[in-house]
Amino acid sequence: MNDKQNLEPTVKQCIGAAAVAKRLGVSRTLVNKWRERYPANSMHPFPCPDVEIDDVPGWSEDRLIEIERWRAGMPGRGTQLRPLPDTSPNPDD
User: Fold this and answer.
1) Burial class (CB in 10 A: 0-12, 13-18, 19+), 71
2) In which order are the strands placed within the sheet that holds 56-60?
3) Residue 3 has what pLDDT?
4) Is there a contact between 78 and 84 (Cβ–Cβ < 8 Å)?
5) Beta-carbon count within 10 A of 17 CB
6) What is the pTM (predicted TM-score) of this model?
7) Half-sphere exposure of 38 (CA within 13 A, CB side)
8) 55 inside domain
9) 22 pLDDT band (50/70/90 cuts)?
10) What pLDDT does residue 79 have?
11) What is the 3-state secondary structure of the chain?
12) Residue-range definition of the domain harbouring residue 23
């Protein structure tokens, strides 16, 4: 068995605040504000990123549903009126 074959790194694909924002239909700035306003020790913490590189957060794409649910449960006006975005795969992609 060749040792070089066992040493190949596994790369984890993540999405950043811009992709989260696009999925939620908001700006990247708002996603970053949510992270500041709803830290881990708050009553409604924003989902912690899976990775941070040079202070840039990244989440696994499969956590978008968790982030969408977080937003749907936000305290404040009108949250009950906002439907979750359609998460079904787009056949055109």
Assistant:
1) buried
2) 14-15, 56-60, 51-53
3) 57
4) no
5) 20
6) 0.68
7) 19
8) yes
9) very high
10) 47
11) CCHHHHCCCCCCCEECHHHHHHHHCCCHHHHHHHHHHCCCCCCCCCCCCCEEECCEEEEEHHHHHHHHHHHHCCCCCCHHHCCCCCCCCCCCC
12) 13-74
Q: What is the CATH number of the domain that holds 39?
A: 1.10.1660
Please give the Cα distance from 44 to 71 (Å, whole number).
10
Q: Find the mean pLDDT for residues 49-71.
A: 94
Does a structural domain hold residue 42? Answer: yes
Q: Taking 90 as the threshold, does the pLDDT of residue 70 lie above it? A: yes
Q: To the nearest 10°, the Cα dihedral for 67, 15, 49, 76? A: -30
Could you give the CA distance from residue 11 to residue 27 in angstroms, rounded to a whole number? Answer: 27
